[in-house]
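Reviewers of the previous submission asked for a worked example of the structure-prediction workflow described in the proposal, so we include one complete record here. The input consisted solely of the amino acid sequence. No template or homolog information was supplied to the procedure at any stage.
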Amino acid sequence: MSEPTKRKRKLRTFSAFGDVRRMPSEYEIVTHAQNWNTRAGKASVFEQNPSSAGNLWFLTYREHSPFQADDWDGFRDPDKIAYRAYVNHQATAQTKLDGVLEMYADADAALPQAQVELLGSAFTPSRYLVHGFQQAEAYVGYIAPSSYITSAAGYANADFLRRVSVVAYRTRALQLAHPESGIGENERRIWEQCAAWQPARKAIERALIAYDWGEAFTSLNLVLCPTLDDVLIRQFGQVSRANGDEQSWLLSGLLNEDGRRRNRWSAALGRYALEQRETNEKPLRKWIDRWSAMADEAAEALAPLLGRPASEVVAGARAAREELHAGIFAAAAAAS
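From that input alone, the workflow returned the following structure tokens.
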């Protein structure tokens, strides 16, 4: 007796996920297989000679990267951020931030001189560093091997743009309140010439030429951002509060939420890579060690701006970074 023929299911809007019985979430539907440069069945990324510069770039720095997985599309952002969710979340966050700015609109004029100097040396020049973060994150998203990674990097990129905008807004407000301080005029010179900023400048400029996609992701998301965010957001906020600047402390706390969300998906991606292939651990640790030395050097150089001992600043920043790494490697060790 012949076996009954299995009835073929009709195509649905989510058939790209395969023969699945579960309705994909909104996040998955709008994120899955959206990268034009990872289309299946293509001999090369661009529809041109496989040996063209663009095709060789992707071949060298993504397809031949030591950071590989059997299926990058299996990664999921733990926060499941899609466009609608991101806009709604950030609209609420921006309302809180705008409320702080409005509440303290007239407070800058009464700030003590020490805090004005801190803001002019550590806060307002930071927009150059954060813009570098933004550029590096854009590259990670562009060259990433899955639209799930591109999507997460894209929203992190938007977070950096928001942070640059906040710094620029505060710079102008401080310039109006303290026209004699040089705020609003000296930031580029400080970024390019001040000894305290040069290791951070060196680190982000080198990150911008870390072309391998795995190293680009590791240098920025797993090392430089968690390290320098601890210095320039958390520790800066603490010092500002001690100096009587509640506004800077509150703004730092709100901006830090963006960093925490970036850390969550970055750690999840690191864990996923190790679950996919144990061989990813070696390049991941190599890159972390390489970039951690530069990150610590940058944190140490910035310490005098905060008026704190360098050892204390570096220890706090290193602890924040290593906590992120522990969540990656400990989970992988437990799984094995």
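The radius of gyration is 23 Å. We consider this example representative of the routine output the project will generate in years two and three.
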